[in-house]
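Reviewer comment 2.1 asked that we show a complete input and output for one of the modelled complexes. We chose the iron/sulfur cluster case, as it is the one discussed in the main text.
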Amino acid sequence: IESLAEARAGTADSPGTWAPAVAAALGLPAASALGPAGYYADLAAPHSRRHVRVCAGTACFAAQAGRHLPDVEHELGVAAGRVSPDGETSLQTIRCLGYCYTGPAALDDDTPCTGRTLTGQLAGRAPSRAPGIPVADDTGDPVLLGTVLAGERPWQVWPRTVTAGRPDEVQREVAASGLRGRGGAGFRVASKWEAAGRTPGTVVVANGDEGDPGSYADRLLMEAEPERVLEGLALACFACGAGRGVILVRSEYPLALARMREAVQQAYADGHFGPSVHATDTRLDVEVVAGAGSYVAGEETALIASLEGDRGCARPRPPYPTRRGLWGAPTVVNNVETLASVPWIIARGGEDYARRGTPDESGTKLVCLSERFARPGAYEVELGTPLPRIVTELGGGLQDGSELAALQVGGPLGGFLGPDALDVPLTTAGLASRGAALGHAGLVAFDQRVPPREALRHIWQFAAAESCGACSPCRVGSRRGLELASAGTPPGPEWERLGRVLAEASLCAFGRRIPPAVRSLARAYGERLPGWES
Ligand code: SF4
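Response of the prediction step:
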């Protein structure tokens, strides 16, 4: 995929003109390159000398009710997905760039431009502006942001753990902590590690393909705490008996990609990775791989397909990746935030970690608040923190005295809550009781300026654009939903049929989550979305 991305750079030609040569150089048939080249957004989009990626993710959409996209197209004189008449500029829409706290956002080549003056920045009338992520701790003792907020030195745990040579103790502490995956599925980490069974050849993959629009927690960790992520990966490899770790970082995060690469290089130089880690007989090889733009490739089977150079489509399970994953090897896929929790757990003990949060959902979580909040930013909170505290006390409510119309939790397919439905704890179970999902815990506030029908259309646009296309219920159904929503079709038998097909016949959770997300939006807006109240 990286070879294809290199070939793509700087050419507005279609993949058919450059992808076959990449395959030939690798001794592969042309189809093996044409498939991925037509699939990944970065590879399929034409690239001119100047390539602008504008965010069409939910937080940027909510910031100006979606008006920034036509404004950018007008300013640059090029439609999204096209090249300007003079051939100099190409424009690509992205969901999302991780600047949800200061949107709308764009990357002008790799230079971020954000905020109300976005079009002026892209036109060169204003200096480019991309403030750092505001961060705060609500726990009194951060697990994830120790380096950023408390000045802790990285790499305090790994050298002594690998020297002690007790992987079973790492496994035991993580089991005692009750840590669950932070990527959305919430599977118990210790159970996943156990399922790989310390089989020789096991690989651990750090999933840095944070696709949920509204969340920038993984971006923050990879940019500001890359050593913590790597230390967590090293500990996970040790516990799983894996000699190889891979970190996939999405291409929409160029700074995170650079930081992770620098941190890996430094870790080799400091003896944390290599053929004989800290003079022990533990071997650990770690590499960083760049994604190429696919939401679904964040799902673990799709992520593995992507790392194998294939289209990033979900694969049927079983076999589960812990039995047969990357190149057929047992593979443990853990999200970046999950891995970043592990050093603290090993340093302080699993039981200490388990005392935080709730009995069923222990620990802390990074919650990301969008630009519409008075105090947007990433907050480390204990799981179980009441949602009203996060929205009102930490986030300060909405800026400019705006009223909250709906709150999106966990990405467009996570779900929406109305302002009268916020009285739940921030847990998977608490949000599920309101028909929403925790996902990556990105909270995107919609105010009254976003017309409810546009919010509905936004979900279908997202679904149609990001469906991987591997199964027809979702591939065709998401496009049909967008057609119906764009035409303003009121609820009725066709919507019902569509919802049933998506929920019952989609291959992966992406398609199955579309109907509940739409239902949650209808509930959140109530009578403000006429005809959809029930
Ligand atoms: Fe791909 Fe959608 Fe089918 Fe999932 S449900 S495999 S995203 S087409």
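The two ends are 45 Å apart (CA to CA). We note this here for comparison with the apo prediction described in Section 3.2.
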